[in-house]
């Protein structure tokens, strides 16, 4: 897939519209906690917009391993030309158990992996450095995660229920936490604490982020639809609601997002290469 450069240089591009992104779905025992393994190569320097998705990633970049915590708003890293980033992406609600830490302590932060795994992270980092290509690094990362899986405790039933309800778009409450309390039977205080621990923020913030992700999916699935239609499909009250949320969460307008994703789809149809799938 060729690099897409139709946007002005001062306009940050959605990460999936810059460079070459490849994603491999997780499988087997890891599939319940790890959504995918991925690589992102940038032939040219680029300022990209990494929009929030509720996930946490372990990444290899510039010779080191780090954890990218959950974001409330888009991050805008300036990536070096020729860099190939390798990563493993945890499913929403799963990462806290793997890192043995509450996620609200790393929200919006990138932290060295050895802060969580100590010597094991440094050993993994050495193995990754000795690998000669991205596919080998993904294989090493996958094997390491598989070896650690038996010691990982699954999220609580309440968190699993929250994720399921929020992702299924079955909550209509303006304040999702109230509906979740009723659905899970957990006290509001306890549920708020567990959401911060496992999501990095509250249920309302996660609900906004997942709604934005539904808009991105709708843009790719129906690129010719009007923004008003896409807004309703994603669960927004109207197009104005979509516009406010997109600006606050990404700094981009819905039209910017729709245009950039349209370029991605055009390039996919020309190349017939595997395309980026949203986190």
Low-pLDDT regions: 1-9, 268-279
Question: How many angstroms does the end-to-end distance come to?
Answer: 19 Å
What Rg do the Cα atoms give? 19 Å
Strand order of the largest sheet: 2-3-8-5-6-9
Biggest sheet, in brief? 6 strands, antiparallel
Topology:
Blueprint: E1 13-14, E2 20-25, E3 34-41, E4 46-49, E5 56-61, E6 64-68, E7 78-79, E8 84-90, H1 95-99, E9 110-112, H2 114-117, H3 119-130, H4 134-148, H5 157-167, H6 176-184, H7 188-199, H8 203-221, H9 227-234, H10 239-250, H11 254-271
Parallel strand pairs: 1-4
Antiparallel strand pairs: 2-3, 3-8, 4-7, 5-6, 5-8, 6-9
Write a concise keyword list for the protein shown above.
279 residues, alpha+beta, 6-stranded antiparallel sheet, globular, disordered N terminus, disordered C terminus
Précis, in short:
The protein is α+β, with helices and mostly antiparallel strands and 279 residues long. It contains eleven helices and nine strands.
Description:
This protein is α+β, with helices and mostly antiparallel strands. The protein has a domain at 13-151. The chain has helices spanning 95-99, 114-117, 119-130, 134-148, 157-167, 176-184, 188-199, 203-221, 227-234, 239-250, 254-271; strands spanning 13-14, 20-25, 34-41, 46-49, 56-61, 64-68, 78-79, 84-90, 110-112. The strands form 2 sheets. The chain has a 6-stranded antiparallel β-sheet with strand order 2-3-8-5-6-9. It has a 3-stranded mixed β-sheet with strand order 1-4-7. Helix 3 packs antiparallel against helix 4 and helix 8 crosses helix 9. The radius of gyration is 19 Å and the shape is globular. The two termini are 19 Å apart. The relative contact order is 0.15.
């Amino acid at each position: 897939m060729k690099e897409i450069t139709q946007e002005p240089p001062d306009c940050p591009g959605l990460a999936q519209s810059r460079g070459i992104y490849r994603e491999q779905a997780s499988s087997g025992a890891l599939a319940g906690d790890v959504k995918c393994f991925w690589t992102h190569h940038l032939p040219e320097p680029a300022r990209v917009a990494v929009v929030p998705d509720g996930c946490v990633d372990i990444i290899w970049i510039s010779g080191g391993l780090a954890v990218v915590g959950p974001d409330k708003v888009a991050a805008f890293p300036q990536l070096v030309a020729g860099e190939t980033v390798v990563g493993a992406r945890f499913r929403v609600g799963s990462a806290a158990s793997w890192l043995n830490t509450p996620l609200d302590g790393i929200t919006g932060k990138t932290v060295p992996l050895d802060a969580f795994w100590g010597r094991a992270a440094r050993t993994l980092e050495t193995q990754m450095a000795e690998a000669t290509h991205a596919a080998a690094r993904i294989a090493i990362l996958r094997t390491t995660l598989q070896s650690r899986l038996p010691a990982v405790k699954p999220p609580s039933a309440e968190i699993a229920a929250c994720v399921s309800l929020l992702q299924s778009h079955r909550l209509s409450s303006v304040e999702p936490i109230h509906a979740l309390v009723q659905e899970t039977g957990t006290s509001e205080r306890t549920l708020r604490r567990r959401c911060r621990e496992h999501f990095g923020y509250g249920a309302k913030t996660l609900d906004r982020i997942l709604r934005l992700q539904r808009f991105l999916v709708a843009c790719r699935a129906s690129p010719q639809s009007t923004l008003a239609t896409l807004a309703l499909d994603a669960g927004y009250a109207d197009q104005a609601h979509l516009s406010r949320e997109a600006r606050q969460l990404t700094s981009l307008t819905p039209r910017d997002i729709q245009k950039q994703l349209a370029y991605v789809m055009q390039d996919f149809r020309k190349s017939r290469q595997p395309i980026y799938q949203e986190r």
